[in-house]
Every structure is written in structure tokens, then in C-alpha cells.
């Protein structure tokens, strides 16, 4: 039991409540449901007659945004004290709204206007998850429950990807729930290498699949080390091996790079030399298993890095730079409008930072960078405040997710893929939560959003 969880919460002058109060439904429970819907249902499965913003998980995130707004407007709902992440979210939302108005003022064709509206809706859903994760999770116990569900859901997605890769059978097509519809076809098995093909699990793209799994690996390792029971530690060790083994089957440079970066952050910020040695041995074992199960996979990945200069996907990215400069010179500060660089009308720009530069301008790029660095700063402060190795390890895992997001933003248009974007939203919100839990002022660290059902 984390000692901070035993502290009471001040809900009114002279009135306190337990932070460990058992309730029917709280913020952590809703976020756990969101994770299950996000990872265990195909990304193209939506509520009928809606856009991709109508994914069940995203609609739930929109409800979280409404819940957070109600909590902010009602004083008795316990959400007191500062939260730096709120200011970063406000700045990011302001940049989107300013770019939205700039797009409207320049005059938009119907497709671009619809894309702007879609992006604005996705932004509210994104911020709903960020803010409720930061302000609404009541204690360390509930935060760890959310992360355990996240690891299990990532392992489920990894198993789907491994089945697709080993048996060339798309089991994701069987995950359609009555009452929902597929907005578009699932990702096909794209050939790459000698007898190999790329898979996407329940995600919409191969790069997205590998990247979100890479972000999950540090959290799987966290519970493999710090779960209270031995059988739980073994169970999470197996889940983590499954997740890590599924990353390369997407045959994506970005996914492999994301995994290396995530492990690099943990190596520097969280592990002692014994842990580093153990992770090195486990990595060798995983590589050996991949070699046996998928012969030629590691060679294909090696060739992708060694011969990257001759890869059409790399040259295609660099060829776009001239067009990026042209569009940027036209509207440098606020951009063309969020979401208006539609691939079917213009180009597929595999770079989120350049995409933000074109659509939201310099102000949008600055706001996004401030958002990332605020999350890193909050998790770093929490790491330094933490007194246990377990808490420090968890904070380092949150830092790794932000570093991965910053890096992969330069290799694909990450915010165009909702599974990745909302995984990032969850990790960002948890950065604010650990900052709050480790704050020296009890009133701030026990502040939370009132439970939905008691």
C-alpha cells in the first residue's frame, strides 16, 4: 500500500474523505474502459454514420472532456490546487483554435472545412483524456490499475499481430461488434522482404502498431519488476516479452527505433547495473526467439537501416521538403488550418512536426513542443521527489513515452493515427498525475475529480 494513498482528501472546510473509497465508477475505471476499447477493437470500427472521431474509445474521451469541464465549473467537486499541465493543454488548444480561425478566414473548400472540424473534435477528445488522467485519478493504486490494464491491452494487440504474422490470417476481422461498422478496410498484409509481410494488429497502420507497443514495453518491465506477488511478476514478464517480440513483425524502422529509444531512456534514468545486465540477456533471448520463429526478419530490418538512402519511403519524405517550404512561406505563423493538408488532395507527409508547421504554423509547433516538454518536466520533477525505486521507475517510463513521441513525430504523421495519439494522451495525463501525487502540499496531491457513481 502506497503511504500517500492513506491520506484523507479535504472536500470542504473541516470535512475529509478517504482517497481509497471504493466506488462503482471513477475516473480510473472509465479510463480503463477507454484503453480496452482503444486497443481491443479494430481502429476502423466506429459508431454508424460517424467519422473516425466516432470510435467508441474516442467518444468516451469526449465524455471525459465534458466531465472535466463540469468539475472545473463546480467548486465542490474536489479538483483544487494548481496543475501545470492544464496550462500546456490551454496553450495547445489555443494554437489549434487560432489556426482554425486562420483557415476559415482564408476560405476553405468543403473537404478542407470538414477536415478542420474533424481535427477540432479530435483535439477536444484528446484533451479530455489528458486532463482527466492528470486531475481525476485518485491515488497511486488506481494509477497502477490503469497501467496494468494498458499492458494487458497492449499484449492483446501484440498477440493479434503475432497471429497475423505467423499464420497470415487476419483475426482482427473477427473483432467486429454488432451495432458498429467498419469505416474503411483494415490494413492489409503488405509484402516487405523475402517472404515477409507487415502486420498492424488492431491498429490502422504498421508504424502505429509497432510504435504504441514500443511505448508499452517500459510499463510491462515495470510490473515485471515491482508487482507485489511473484506470480504476477512472472505473468507481466511474459506479457512484456510478447509485446517486445511483436514490435519487429511490423517491419518498421520507426517501431524499432522507438523501442531502442524507450529502452535507452530506461537504461539511463531508471536502471542500476544489475537491471541493465538482466535486460541485455533478455534482449538477446528475444532476438534469438525471433530468429527461430520468423527467419529472415532481423536481416530485413538490418537492410532497412543499412540501405535507407535507397529506400523509396525515405526519398519520398525528402522530396516533400520543397513543397513544405512553399506552403510554410505562405502562412508561417498560423498555418493553413488544422487538418487541411489532406493526403487525397495534396501529399502524404510522413512527419508530424512538418505537418504541424504547415497546418498550424510556428505557433502550433511551439505549443506542441511546450506540451511535450511540460510532460517531461512534470515526470522528471516527480522522479526526483519520489522516495521509492518503484515510483522512480514508473516516472522514468512516463518520460520514455514522451521522448518516443517527440522522436517518431519526425518519422510519421503520428497525430493522424488515433491509437497512437490517444496512447500519448494517456501517458501525458499520467505525467500530470504523478506530479500531483508527489507534490509536497497535501491539499494538491490529494485533489481529484469527484467520483461519478458512489
UniProtKB/TrEMBL annotation:
Signal peptide: none annotated. Residues 239-368 form the O-antigen ligase-related domain. It comes from Actinoplanes friuliensis DSM 7358. The chain crosses the membrane at residues 25-47, 53-73, 85-103, 115-134, 146-167, 203-223, 235-251, 257-273, 280-297, 353-382, 394-412, 418-437. Its main location: membrane. The keyword Membrane applies. It is a multi-pass membrane protein. This is O-antigen ligase-related domain-containing protein. PANTHER family: TEICHURONIC ACID BIOSYNTHESIS PROTEIN TUAE (PTHR37422).
Amino acid at each position: 500500500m502506497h503511504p500517500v494513498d492513506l491520506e484523507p482528501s479535504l472536500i470542504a472546510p473541516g470535512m475529509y474523505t478517504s482517497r481509497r473509497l471504493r466506488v462503482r465508477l471513477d475516473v480510473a475505471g472509465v479510463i480503463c474502459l477507454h484503453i480496452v476499447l482503444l486497443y481491443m477493437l479494430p481502429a476502423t470500427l466506429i459508431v454508424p454514420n460517424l467519422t473516425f472521431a466516432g470510435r467508441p474509445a474516442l467518444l468516451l474521451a469526449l465524455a471525459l472532456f465534458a466531465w472535466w469541464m463540469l468539475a472545473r465549473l463546480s467548486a465542490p467537486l474536489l479538483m483544487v490546487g494548481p496543475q501545470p499541465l492544464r496550462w500546456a493543454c490551454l496553450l495547445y488548444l489555443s494554437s489549434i483554435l487560432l489556426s482554425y480561425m486562420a483557415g476559415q478566414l482564408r476560405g476553405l473548400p468543403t473537404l478542407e472545412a470538414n477536415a478542420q472540424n474533424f481535427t477540432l473534435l479530435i483535439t477536444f477528445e484528446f484533451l479530455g483524456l489528458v486532463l482527466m488522467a492528470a486531475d481525476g485519478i485518485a491515488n497511486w493504486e488506481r494509477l497502477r490499475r490503469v497501467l496494468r490494464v494498458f499492458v494487458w491491452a497492449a499484449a492483446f494487440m501484440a498477440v493479434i499481430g503475432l497471429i497475423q504474422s505467423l499464420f497470415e490470417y487476419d483475426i482482427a476481422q473477427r473483432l467486429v461488434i454488432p451495432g458498429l461498422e467498419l469505416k474503411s478496410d483494415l490494413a492489409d498484409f503488405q509484402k516487405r522482404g523475402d517472404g515477409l509481410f507487415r502486420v498492424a494488429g488492431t491498429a490502422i497502420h504498421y508504424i502505429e502498431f509497432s510504435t504504441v507497443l514500443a511505448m508499452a514495453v517500459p510499463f510491462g518491465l515495470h510490473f515485471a519488476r515491482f508487482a507485489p506477488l511473484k506470480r504476477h511478476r512472472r505473468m507481466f514478464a511474459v506479457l512484456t516479452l510478447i509485446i517486445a517480440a511483436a514490435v519487429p513483425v511490423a517491419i518498421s524502422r520507426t517501431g524499432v527505433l522507438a523501442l531502442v529509444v524507450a529502452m535507452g531512456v530506461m537504461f539511463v534514468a531508471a536502471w542500476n547495473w544489475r537491471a541493465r545486465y538482466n535486460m541485455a540477456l533478455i534482449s538477446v533471448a528475444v532476438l534469438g526467439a525471433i530468429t527461430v520463429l520468423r527467419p529472415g526478419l532481423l536481416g530485413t530490418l538490418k537492410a532497412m537501416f543499412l540501405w535507407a538512402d535507397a529506400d523509396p519511403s525515405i526519398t519520398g519524405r525528402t522530396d516533400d521538403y520543397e513543397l513544405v517550404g512553399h506552403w510554410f512561406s505562405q502562412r508561417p505563423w498560423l498555418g493553413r488550418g488544422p487538418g487541411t493538408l489532406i493526403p487525397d488532395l495534396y501529399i502524404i507527409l510522413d512527419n508530424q512536426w512538418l505537418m504541424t508547421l504547415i497546418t498550424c504554423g510556428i505557433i502550433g509547433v511551439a505549443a506542441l513542443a511546450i506540451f511535450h516538454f511540460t510532460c517531461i518536466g512534470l515526470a522528471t520533477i516527480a522522479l526526483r521527489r519520489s522516495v521509492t525505486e518503484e515510483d522512480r521507475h514508473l516516472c522514468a517510463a512516463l518520460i520514455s513515452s514522451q521522448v518516443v513521441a517527440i522522436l517518431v513525430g519526425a518519422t510519421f504523421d503520428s497525430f493522424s493515427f488515433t491509437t497512437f495519439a490517444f496512447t500519448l494522451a494517456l501517458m501525458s495525463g499520467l505525467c500530470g498525475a504523478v506530479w500531483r501525487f508527489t507534490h509536497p502540499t497535501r491539499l494538491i496531491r490529494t485533489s481529484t475529480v469527484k467520483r461519478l457513481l458512489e
